[in-house]
């Protein structure tokens, strides 16, 4: 049985798959406590793999789609995701993405791995990772706080895409307050863009689902 916080159908709002329809499965529980996290994942319903897949298929009722995408997220999904669930999702025709903090190993068979390492995974020296268990992923997405240099992750992880996401940047703020990325009223966005301009290996990632008013 898996502790599922919610299952919903929307557009992927972050990373290389931004804008693509996907069924999100949010699992309850996390092994880290990030101060900026706004996700409620303490409540859950216990569900078996067949129940999860059945509910996902009801939401993703697009029979002509060649590839149905799902995103396993949390909380921290690696606390629960296992081979039986991966097999059940593949049998139902899903392309499986996972969003993980990278502190735990993953079962084989996941199609796309997004690693979002956190500051709490760094030692006090801020020069090496403390507990990152993954080595090769598809994309790395880092929340830019300005308190440490995200380049540290490039020595720890191998990835195709490197994304930097402002800590404080929402659709409401964009529409109502910011005239440009250089607006002093959003120092974090300003700092993120300036960092990328001087470190062009990284790409800017914003949460387009919040800008569009989606889940």
For the structure shown, list the relevant keywords.
215 residues; alpha/beta; TIM Barrel; 9 strands; 24% strand
What can you tell me about this protein's structure?
- The chain has 215 residues and is α/β, with parallel strands linked by helices.
- The chain has a single domain, classed as Alpha-Beta Barrel (TIM Barrel).
- It is 20% helix and 24% strand.
- The protein has helices spanning 49-59, 83-91, 171-176, 187-198, 208-211, and strands spanning 2-11, 21-27, 45-47, 68-73, 94-100, 112-115, 139-144, 161-166, 203-204.
- Helix 2 (83-91) links the parallel strand 4 (68-73) and strand 5.
- The radius of gyration is 18 Å and the shape is globular.
The fold-level CATH name is: TIM Barrel
Low-confidence stretches: 123-129
Number of strands: 9
Radius of gyration (CA) equals: 18 Å
User: What is the residue-averaged pLDDT?
Assistant: 84
Termini distance?
26 Å
Q: Please give the largest β-sheet.
A: 9 strands, mixed
Query: How are helices and strands ordered from N to C?
Result: EEEHEHEEEEHHEH
Q: Which CATH class applies here?
A: Alpha Beta
| Secondary-structure-derived class | alpha/beta
CATH homologous superfamily caption? Aldolase class I
Quick gist of this model?
By secondary structure, the protein is an alpha/beta fold.
Topology:
Layout: E1 2-11, E2 21-27, E3 45-47, H1 49-59, E4 68-73, H2 83-91, E5 94-100, E6 112-115, E7 139-144, E8 161-166, H3 171-176, H4 187-198, E9 203-204, H5 208-211
Parallel strand pairs: 2-4, 4-5, 5-6, 6-7, 7-8, 8-9
Antiparallel strand pairs: 1-2, 1-3
